Fold:
Amino acid sequence: MNRSILVTGFGPFPGQSFNPTLPALDELPSMMGGAATLCDHGGAQAGRFGVFDTSSEYHVLVEKQALSVDAEGAMSVARRLESGERWDAIVHIGVDRTVERPRVEFTASNHLDFHLPDVQNRLVLGPVIEGAPELLRTHRVVERICTGVSQAWSPLQRIGSYVCNETYFRTLECCRRLGLDLPVVFLHVPDRRPKEVARWVGWWIKRLGRPPRTVVAAAALKRSDGAIFAAHRRDHPSDDGWEFPGGKRRIGESLDQTAIREVGEEICVELGPGLPLGVVCGEVKEREYELHVFEHGCDTDPLLGSDHDDGRWLEPSQLFDVPWLQLDVPLVRALKEEVRALKEE
Structure:
């Protein structure tokens, strides 16, 4: 499946001869995609069973546009949207020379307070657009993708009140006004080589060019006798919905931390660090998931909370006595095969 994404970079700011976001556009290929890009923050490991990936391949047509650091540049993408042009996502890139790490801006403000003139000598103090909302937030898809960004990315939110904010706000406001369900993201990057900037942007292009992906982590609790704990989700029928307990990663967590937190919240079991077991990627009801499972030793009987209505310890020969969720099946099968192989040795 092919999708299209518009990527913009800025020309030099006043008093500067170089802005890495502009030559970074030249480093980006015109077509990207293929297999899914895994969550790559610290702690993401394939584990002893590796990666099981059934998700489809997607290809992204990358359109690039240079923006001038002035009103014309700030309004350019909004005007193209108003004229009827459409993409599957829009990525704005700006440079922040005061920081060492890239960041994703979640909001844009309807307020400008230029600390220096733009290239057309504008010095603006006031709203971006009269009568528009005071604050606009990025698309929910962008926030979901942020659960898979590297820990090299900063959680800082500081869009500022200069042309970067003006550009972001105008694009978001245009989408709001036209009723477009369109992911728009602003990436602020430090002053680095264009190839490094392009690498950061490329990760986002690959993610935005696919169906929304949710990164989750779970724990395979293993009792000293080899039994594995399975929990049944309360919101599923009895003939479906058994899983390794776990849940969605929060921004800033390692995947093992996510699994430990979720197990504590869902079944009241305290865990230490686990061992990476494997990763499963796939589509469920037109949404992509990336499941990271960690093996934890546990001889404590779990106490089910509101998310589950049943739980069982399953001997290796009983692992498929319950109907597992689709994403869990490859690792359950791998666990069973591992036990069988050990018996045959």
Residues 213-344 form a domain with the Nucleoside Triphosphate Pyrophosphohydrolase fold (CATH 3.90.79.10). The mean pLDDT is 92.
